[in-house]
Amino acid sequence: MSTNIESERMLETPRPPFLQRIEFGGDYNPEQWSPQIWDEDVQLMRRAGVTVATVGVFSWARLEPRPGEYCFKWLDDILDRLHKGGIQVMLATATASPPPWMATLHPDSLPETAEGTRLGPGSRQHYSPSSSAFRTHALRLVEKIVERYAGHPALCAWHIGNEYGCHVPKSYDTESTTAFRAWLQQKYGTVAALNDAWCTAFWAQEYQSFEEVSVPRATPTFPNPTQMLDFDRFSSDALLHLYLAELSIVRRITPDIPVTTNFMGMFKSADYWSWVQHLDFISDDVYPDPADEDSYVGLAAQRDLMRSLAAGKPWIVMESATSAVQWRSVNVPKPRGLHRLQSLQAVARGADGILHFQWRQSYGGAERFHSSMVPHAGPESRIFKEVCSLGSELADLGQLTGLRVQADVAFILDWDSWRAVEQDAMPSTVSYLDHLLAWYRPFLRAGITVDFQPASADLSVYAMVVAPMLHVVTERTAENLARVVDGGNVLIVGCFSGVVNEDLHVWLGGYLGPLRPILGVRVEEYAPVNPGLPLAIDGLVKGTASTWQDVVVNEDAEVIASFMDGYAVSSPALTRREKNNGAAWYVATLPSPELMDQLVARWVGESQVTPLLAAPVDGVEAVQRGDITFLINHRAEEREVEIGPSEIVRLGGYQVFSNAITTNSNDGVTSRAEFHSC
Predict the structure, then answer these.
(1) What is the pLDDT of residues 122-166, one digit of tens each?
(2) CA 583, CA 484: separation in Å to the nearest integer?
(3) What is d(CA 338, CA 331) in angstroms, rounded to the nearest whole number?
(4) Residue of 23, 175, 246, 319 marked catalytic
(5) What's the start-to-end Cα distance of the chain, in Å?
(6) N or C: which terminus of the chain has fewer CB atoms within 10 Å of its end residue's CB?
């Protein structure tokens, strides 16, 4: 055991390239195993084609068994073994799970629920993001690790923390309360400004000082909506500041080593738009449910979000499962071929790495039934053989590295709107993600690739911009969206949008607020619809809808179709306002999938976006990366796909097909040559 940083000579060989190929590997937790297993691990990694291992994510207790006493020799051994075997290391800062002594010495570092329950150790992520004791010990550990391994040739990247906010997105402890007050004071300056923003004249909530303000603990009935939203914002910032504190150490000592932390797809508790500038490459953890045959829709959207967050940087899948997980009520295994299919889907949508949790399946602990690359059954198992096959396949796709995925359509993903529409005391219970995916799905079916963007982004490069539920709208947001139409492009806005400003104050004079002059309509009332009740829509397009009706008053728009029944009968359901060769559409309900297909076809024609599929096919997606087109069948049954005039591709169950598109420079004839098909 070493009690200080030793100056042992590291292996003197060059670092291998990182993200110059499709990386393959996973979380490696050798501390769970005896050294006799370590040699076999390296041999099996080489057999599987592993290029990178994430090491040390949950190693704090082993690295610092007692405060200030460090044990690094076992980790030295692991990194040397991996490097000798040609395996790169993405080294974690090990701060994701504090050791037991932290809770014993600093019980105030433990997180607290809104009801005042102190969460104990014995699991993971048992810390308050605002805890000064946790931060002090965590940053000291980070400095020791980074100083020790800065020159190790196996080191290819730093993995800071782990899944920030996964289990404790918010803590209501005393230090969090103090930090929240400081955050509010910095934001508002005066308590009078806070009172105005929070509309505290309602229910006698006016504050006389910031010391009276608290975190939104459990209350007798509905809490203050703006207080809740501000606490959501603060909690995301608290997690980010914790990450940044570690990042500053890593940057100071190893400025040339790339840095990441693992996101969790569309995760409500952390506004990833504010995180991305602080990562050198984007990493994502993703676990679709094999029992849900439509999980590929959310999976594709998650890939598109990561690529959009990356904005030209590389991105990788940091965690995925070879088969079943252990945390659902029923943990269905993945059918043969499905994990390969989903991995190639990520590559098709821009990923430069496919990693897993974890390398070797644990024999004990809470995740012992979570599938891995080397399962309990060992290396002669079906799963490990499929892992080896996938590693070999990805090794042959190096030419994809660095190729971009082009999108002509942008979807607005707004964390404030997400949090706001899912608060209590709303017109109806709304799932922001369900609504978003209902809009995303017809674009996916048509083979139209989508970027996700914040409402503040430069949207001028997109032929079509879609805001499925932009509930929170500022004057600046409205100006940005107006530029879409003024630039001759197509804007589509969905129901329950433009309702409140950034303080959740309702726009008066008719909903849609500053979006009214863009759309040419205003909304007088909301009429949520009971689940399963269809609504008929008729006009230039016909079909059904569900879930929601706006009572729309037309001011300066063309009515495309109207409601034929329901509370809003005869009210416009679909409107269009043309300006400067651009057009702004308003959709006052949630169209059925069939009606969505019709609308997308119409919007595509209007915006001159080119779908990759001639006609939507259930369970099939098409996406282009660089000049490589991928067709993916997410169904177990065979599908026929039309990708051009009289050009049919037959896809077997869970099959991926892609081809390179090349042009003969002599005669300009475009030919299709098979690139990859299994």
Answers:
(1) 999 999 999 999 999 999 999 999 999 999 999 999 999 999 999
(2) 9
(3) 15
(4) 319
(5) 51
(6) N
Residue 319: active-site member? yes
Neighbours of 116 (CB within 10 A): 10
Answer whether the bond into residue 208 is a cis peptide, omega within 30°.
Answer: no
Are 472 and 513 a contacting pair, CB within 8 Å? no
**Whole-Å CA distances, 542 to 205, 554, 589, 591, 615:** 49, 19, 13, 10, 19
Structure tokens at 285: 């953890």
Which tens digit of pLDDT belongs to each residue from 606-632? 999 999 999 999 999 999 999 999 999
Across 164-289, where does the E strand assignment appear?
259-260, 262-263, 282-285
Look up 555 and say whether it is catalytic: no
Q: How many CB atoms lie within 10 A of CB 671?
A: 10
In the chain, where does the domain assigned CATH 3.40.50.880 lie?
409-607
CB contact at 8 A, 587 and 549:
no
Q: Which of 569, 407, 602 lies closest to 492 in space, CA to CA?
A: 602
- Residues, the chain, total? 678
Q: Which amino acid type is present at position 310?
A: A
Q: Scanning the structure block, which residue is given the tokens 């088969």? A: 323
Beta-ladder partners of 624: 629
Q: Which of 23, 64, 112, 163 is catalytic?
A: 163
SS3 624: strand
**pTM (2 d.p.):** 0.94
pLDDT of 213-250, one tens digit each?
999 999 999 999 999 999 999 999 999 999 999 999 99
DSSP state of 276: G
Phi, psi (degrees; rounded to nearest 5) at 140 = -65, -40
Q: Amino acid identity, residue 348?
A: A
* Three-class secondary structure assignment of 176-209: HHHHHHHHHHHHHCCHHHHHHHHCCCHHHCCCCC
pLDDT value, residue 676: 40
The reported pLDDT for the residue numbered 402 is: 87
Q: Which residue has the tokens 């080896």?
A: 388
What is the SS3 assignment for 635? coil
* Rounded distance between C-alpha atoms, residue 566 and residue 60, angstroms: 59
Instruction: List the 572-579 sheet strands across, edge first.
Output: 450-453, 409-412, 464-467, 490-494, 582-587, 572-579, 558-563, 535-539, 543-546, 590-591
Class of 409-607 per CATH?
alpha beta
- The tokens describing 671, both together, are 């030919």
Q: For residue 535, what are its two tokens?
A: 């609504």
